[in-house]
């Protein structure tokens, strides 16, 4: 069978989890393929609200298997906390969570170093990370100093690699960050306990997923963050340390590209970003404030206010090229219900010349060209199909579709499952 992919097209928080939850009903296996507990994925069902950081958002359907993929960095403390929270809310997770044995473990020292680096960075150099240790853990992976989940089960790891890894980390902690050294015995005990708790959850994810696909199972790949936070194609260095884009979905899950069917780009009807870094269509006036207030734009992981601005066509076109988007899901359209006019960034100029790509440097030199669209000034949350939407809302959707060059297949008009319009 085939795999569909959900990818964020902007700077994260596009409403990916809401769409994943909507699509997971028709899915057997949901796979998170990158990132870690920096993600905050919110699903609202009835009066209940769930926020996922590591566990795939498909967990709310009782028969769905949820895989934490090999491209992830997994903080065991965050994982167990999340599992406990789900149990409290009556969600049964036993036998439903599988963890790729090549995923990396994110350990307490990663979080210490992340926070120390952010605290000591000069003004203008701070990234505004979630302080979840993400960049430090991926750094260890790239440096080949990382610890993978499977290492816990290796016959030689504890004796052969752990002591020198901890010695190296201790040196960095004490000499660069004035932090405490790692106690090797305590770390060994911590990891042995972790091994016991993870027993029975591990999979060789590439083998497992390709086999399940071949036997007819339907897979949904769940991206975290978004294209503009991609390590290679985002606003570097103000990015996360993984690839949320299609390439990262393949390497982070071990699924072969020829299983991929739909690549669905999740796109807010405006734009937000949390943390530092360039944001061409950011609105510093009362409209930015209004978007934040109506859209409740506060981070699900850190609670920080999100920066808000208008829809940016060039961002979505960049995202469509990199990801090979086959469709878009336009979310939070209802947040625009009360605007007289809605601005859209339809293009860029740099040094007086039109550019039709997202530049890799000097992004702050971009001058955005805007077009204005009339608002619809009525609530659309109860609309069930395209025809029930006000004329100006339909015009806005059609204009975005045309500008971006990707068909819009879903429109989300509220946070709940049922507030979703399937267009095509
Ligand atoms: P994700 O990280 O991409 O999954 O997005 P987040 O969960 O961080 O942020 C999206 C927020 O918008 C959540 O609070 C959702 O409940 C909410 N949301 C999702 N879709 C809609 C929508 O169509 N309308 C409104 N008003 N809220 C939405
Ligand atoms: P979801 O999956 C929005 C941002 C941080 C910071 C930068 C680097 O909910 O869309 P990191 O902790 O990853 O090293 O921080 O990336 N960031 C997100 N912004 N949504 C997210 O995830 C994010 N995950 C990280 O704010 O600017
Ligand atoms: Mg989020």
What's this, in brief?
This protein is of the alpha/beta class. It is built from twelve helices and 20 strands. It has helices spanning 16-24, 76-88, 108-120, 134-143, 157-160, 162-177, 184-198, 205-214, 246-253, 286-294, 313-323, 391-404, and strands at 3-8, 29-32, 41-45, 48-52, 65-68, 73-74, 97-100, 104-105, 202-203, 219-222, 260-268, 271-273, 307-309, 311-312, 327-331, 341-350, 353-355, 367-374, 408-412, 420-422.
- List each distinct ligand once: guanosine-5'-diphosphate, 6-O-phosphoryl inosine monophosphate, magnesium ion
Q: Structurally, how many domains make up the residues? A: 2
For the largest sheet, list the strands in their spatial order: 9-7-5-2-10-1-11-15-19-20
In whole angstroms, how far apart are the ends?
A: 21 Å
> Which architecture name of the largest domain does CATH use?
Alpha-Beta Complex
Query: What integer is the average pLDDT?
Result: 96
Under CATH, the homologous superfamily of the largest domain reads Adenylosuccinate Synthetase, subunit A, domain 3
CATH fold description of the largest domain: Adenylosuccinate Synthetase, Chain A, domain 3
Query: What radius of gyration results from the CA coordinates?
Result: 22 Å
Helical percent range? 25-40%
**Continuous helix count:** 12
As a percent range, the share of strand residues is 15-25%
Please outline the major beta sheet. Answer: 10 strands, mixed
Structural class: alpha/beta
Which residue ranges are poorly predicted, with pLDDT under 50 across at least 5 consecutive positions?
none
């Amino acid at each position: 069978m085939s795999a569909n992919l959900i990818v964020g097209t902007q700077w994260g928080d596009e409403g990916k989890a809401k769409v994943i939850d909507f699509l997971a009903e028709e899915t057997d296996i949901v796979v998170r393929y990158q990132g870690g507990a920096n993600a905050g994925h919110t699903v609202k069902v009835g009066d209940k609200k769930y926020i996922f950081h590591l566990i795939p958002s498909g967990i709310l359907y009782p028969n769905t298997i949820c895989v934490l993929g090999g491209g992830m960095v997994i903080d065991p403390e965050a994982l167990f906390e999340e599992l406990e929270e789900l149990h409290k809310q009556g969600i049964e997770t036993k036998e439903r969570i599988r963890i790729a044995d090549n995923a990396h473990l994110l350990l307490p020292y990663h979080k210490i170093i992340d926070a120390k680096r952010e605290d000591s960075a000069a003004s203008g150099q701070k990234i505004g990370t979630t302080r979840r240790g993400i960049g430090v853990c991926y750094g260890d992976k790239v440096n080949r100093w990382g610890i993978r989940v499977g290492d816990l089960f290796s016959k030689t790891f504890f004796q052969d690699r752990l002591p020198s890894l901890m010695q190296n980390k201790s040196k960095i902690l004490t000499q660069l960050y004035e932090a405490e050294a790692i106690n090797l015995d305590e770390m060994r005990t911590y990891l042995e306990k972790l091994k016991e708790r993870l027993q029975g959850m591990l999979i060789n994810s590439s083998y497992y997923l390709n086999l399940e696909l071949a036997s007819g199972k339907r897979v949904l790949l769940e991206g975290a963050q978004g294209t503009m936070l991609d390590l290679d194609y985002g606003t570097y260095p103000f990015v996360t340390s993984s690839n949320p884009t299609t390439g990262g979905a393949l390497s982070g899950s071990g699924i072969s590209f020829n299983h991929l069917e739909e690549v669905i780009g999740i796109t807010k009807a405006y734009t937000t970003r949390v943390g530092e870094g360039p944001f061409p269509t950011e609105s510093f006036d009362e409209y930015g404030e209004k978007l934040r207030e109506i859209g409740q734009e506060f981070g699900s992981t850190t609670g920080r206010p999100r920066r808000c601005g208008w829809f940016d066509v060039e961002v979505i076109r960049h995202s469509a090229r990199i990801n090979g988007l086959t469709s878009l899901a336009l979310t939070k359209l209802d947040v625009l219900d009360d605007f007289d006019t809605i601005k859209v960034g339809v293009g860029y100029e740099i040094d007086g010349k039109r550019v039709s790509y997202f530049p890799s440097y000097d992004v702050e030199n971009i001058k955005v060209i805007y077009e204005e669209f009339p608002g619809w000034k009525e609530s659309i949350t109860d609309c069930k199909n395209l025809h029930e939407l006000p004329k100006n809302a339909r015009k806005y959707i059609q204009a975005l579709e045309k500008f971006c060059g990707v068909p819009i297949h879903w429109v989300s008009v509220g946070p709940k499952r049922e507030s979703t319009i399937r267009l095509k």
